[in-house]
Amino acid sequence: MTRIGIRLLAIALLVLSPACSPTAVASPVGPTEAAGDPAPGGVVRHFDITAEAATIELRPGLHINAWTYNGTVPGPTLRATVGDLIDVSFHNHLPESTTIHWHGLAVPNGQDGVGGLTQDPVPSGSSAHYAFVATTDGTYWYHSHQNSLAQLDRGLYGVIIIAPRTEPAAPGTDATLVFDEWPLGLERPSPPPASDFSMISYVTYTVNTKTGSAIAPVRFEPGKLVRLRLLNVGAFDHFVHIDGQPVTIVAFDGHAVRGGPPTTDALPLGPAERLDVEFTGPNTALWIHLQDGMPPAADLVVPLLPVGMSVPPIPAMSSPAKVLDIFDYPAHAVDTVWPANTVPNKAFTLHLSAQLAPGGVQAMSPDETLYEINGAAFPATGTLEVGLGDFVQITFVNDSSVDHPMHLHGMSFQIITVNGLRPAGVLVKDTVVVAPKARVTIGFKADNPGWWMLHCHILYHSLGGMMILVHVGGASRLAQLGGPFGGRPD
């Protein structure tokens, strides 16, 4: 039996609670715990979001039959200010059920949008309502968390930008660049079949869903501040190099940092990670290259041009730059979550591994590999039980030969040590890339009650089993896997 078959069989064999049996449930559960009002001084920001199929042009002559929010990929950018109520009317016009997860935002558990855990997925033809108060500023994103690999592959994601309540002087240019890979070409039809997750088929890279000559330049005024918000919504690590231009990192995963020096290194951007950088616009053209070493990266070049300058010929990429080690970058988070000398109330060690699934024939093939935590694949990975207010320490030990970008829902964490050494700065994140054979320890305060996912954000790793639950404060579980609505968070 393949990895996919094993995972689906495991979910099917789960014993559902009586509250989620077909005879007891007349309609899907959730989303719940919706906020009714903004914080004092905030306003209501209402958004209508419809999940629907659409044809998207990646470059002239190259189209994909995508699944979209409001007909675009990425979906509409949601903008709010800290304290605002984000009020979303969601409509599902897709042929299967789906959800919206608010990646990196500390929302109430019932608003987290995880199928089979915090809500039942929204059936085709149905609607749902999400409402939560924006509590932290920064660059975040939203995406499906139901049958996630297949649905994100088709385009179900968008950007959220939360401004601080006391906004500093706005930059002259504030641009968002969303990096992704698309399964196109001879290896795979478009859209991809749900049963085929072969990574070899990711043959087109895009930024803001454009590639090659269709990539629009980012315009700036010389002498004015430029802010670039870099997001990776795909499955591969990307290394973003702004040729010849020193930039200063001002946020990791939406969390502002101060004190970091300008760098000309290539910026590592793992799956689900965000980096915000700033620089003063020069009088010359700049170019963003991906120095990934993968053939599709050659078609992804972003021009950064002074206002009024025509687009010059694209230059060849310069010699590869050194890749920045973010753990050596001496910037400090504005808001820390792990005070100095904190002693954890709970500590866990999670070994991350990959092995050939029973019946498989090719080790490390994406559709024949089990990606495990402590020797088990979800849902057999169990639950990390912590009390409300506990300081929790988790050590990831990567026993495999591939990266695992580990993402925690509901709370942000601080990097405590990497291979036994403390980082040069103070990094607060929601996703950390654990390199092969590396050991990374994170810490967070369990201040958000509920049932939360902790998983690898290379989504075929999640589908292969690299997920575990974090239960905070004895809260009731809101939804179950499987059941009449087919909840599956992978």
Q: State the name of the first-level CATH class of the largest domain.
A: Mainly Beta
User: Major sheet: size, sense and barrel closure?
Assistant: 7 strands, mixed
Q: Which strands sit side by side, in order, in the main sheet?
A: 10-9-12-17-14-15-20
Number of H- or I-type helical stretches: 3
Could you estimate the helical fraction of the residues in percent?
under 10%
Number of domains: 3
Radius of gyration: 22 Å
SSE-based structural type: mainly beta
Tell me the β content.
35-45%
Shape: globular
Distance separating the two termini: 19 Å
Task: State the CATH superfamily name of the largest domain.
Answer: Cupredoxins -  blue copper proteins
Low-confidence stretches: 1-25, 185-200
CATH fold label of the largest domain: Immunoglobulin-like
Nearest-integer average pLDDT: 89
> Can you tell me the CATH architecture of the largest domain?
Sandwich
Briefly characterize the structure.
The protein is mainly β.
Helix and strand layout, with pairings?
Blueprint: H1 3-12, E1 44-59, E2 62-69, E3 78-81, E4 85-92, E5 101-103, E6 127-133, E7 138-143, H2 148-153, E8 157-163, E9 173-183, E10 202-207, E11 218-220, E12 225-232, E13 238-242, E14 248-252, E15 255-258, E16 267-269, E17 274-280, E18 286-290, E19 301-306, E20 332-333, E21 346-356, E22 369-373, E23 383-386, E24 391-398, E25 404-408, E26 413-418, E27 428-429, E28 431-434, E29 439-445, E30 450-456, H3 459-463, E31 467-472
Parallel strand pairs: 1-4, 3-8, 9-12, 11-19, 21-24, 23-31
Antiparallel strand pairs: 1-2, 4-6, 5-7, 7-8, 9-10, 12-17, 13-16, 13-18, 14-15, 14-17, 15-20, 18-19, 21-22, 24-29, 25-28, 25-30, 26-27, 26-29, 30-31
